[in-house]
Amino acid sequence: MKAAVVVFPGSNCDRDMAVALKAAGADVTMVWHKDADLPDGTDFVAIPGGFSFGDYLRCGAIAAKSPICKAVINHANRGGYLLGVCNGFQILTETGLLPGVLMRNAGLKYICKYIGLEVVTSNSDFTHGYNAGDILSIPIAHHDGNYVADDTIVAQLKDQDRVAFSYTDNPNGSVSDIAGILSENRRVLGMMPHPERAADDGHGGTDGKAMFRAIVDAVVTA
Amino acid sequence: MKARVHVMLKNGVLDPQGEAVRHALGSLGFDGVNGVRQGKVVELDLTESDAAKAEAQVNDMCEKLLANTVIESYRVEMI
């Protein structure tokens, strides 16, 4: 599988993401935000966590308008796989590829800790390595992870089985405890928790590993 | 031509920062503050000299970048 990890000024989980993807067997290229194109044959794009453009204006707003994001949007619209973690999730909502928005945590504090993450659906190429109802231990590290969407969108996400992950103990005020959502074609996933920080024994947990393995398997067998 | 853009959270969107400010005001003894909403002001210095064209440009800027219309409303003031 050919994976691309997008790097913005202020990204800080790009290398962790690349390490997790490589460990799962992906061939990884780092892509700079000023590039207008993804490498030929890219199957999977990851938008990593961090503080792109210093979180100026709104988290992810400026990154979402960068040259590479046009290519990323085209990739997603062609049915390509796309993962946004943390700031990456914020960027995906700002591009409009995923609905809703991530607002300031309800408690106003930056939170960095392991949380309980429930797998809500295993029906996606990201989550098929888990069973629905599995509780994973995955770290979060964010100030703006409070998922907000209107009732119609939340109902639609639930009806279409597009809530991928939810918090077992809501840390940030997200509506319906939502921690991660899928696009309509189930090939775009945005999530606040960091699976790439729970993908190696050295991390203190490996519950995120199955996600990277699942996505590599899906593309290799496709 | 200059423009000032006011970006505010839409009514009904909970504003945790505004709430924190309200609590802080209360603890300073400012009673009677029923609500606080916090927003942003963006000032733009534009080369366009035609007010109508400039305003149209600024509206476009708001839609594309300055506001996230999922949760925010904006108001453009030409100055």
Secondary-structure element order of chain B, N to C? EHEHE
Described by strand count, sense and barrel closure, the largest sheet of chain B is: 3 strands, antiparallel
CATH topology of chain B: Mth169, Chain: A
Which CATH class of chain B applies here? Alpha Beta
- Strand segment tally of chain B: 3
What's the average pLDDT of chain A? Answer: 97
What CATH calls the topology of chain A is: Rossmann fold
Number of helices of chain B: 2
- SS elements, strand count of chain A: 11
For the record, the CATH architecture of chain B stands as 2-Layer Sandwich
Global structural class of chain B: alpha+beta
Family (chain B): Belongs to the PurS family.
Subunit structure (chain B): Part of the FGAM synthase complex composed of 1 PurL, 1 PurQ and 2 PurS subunits.
EC number (chain B): 6.3.5.3
InterPro entries (chain B): PurS, PurS-like_sf
Keywords:
heterodimer, A: 222 residues, alpha/beta, Rossmann fold, nine-stranded mixed β-sheet, two-stranded antiparallel ribbon, 5 helices, 11 strands, B: 79 residues, alpha+beta, Mth169, Chain: A, three-stranded antiparallel β-sheet, 2 helices, 27% strand, elongated, cytoplasm (chain A), purine biosynthesis (chain A), glutamine amidotransferase (chain A), EC 6.3.5.3 (chain A)
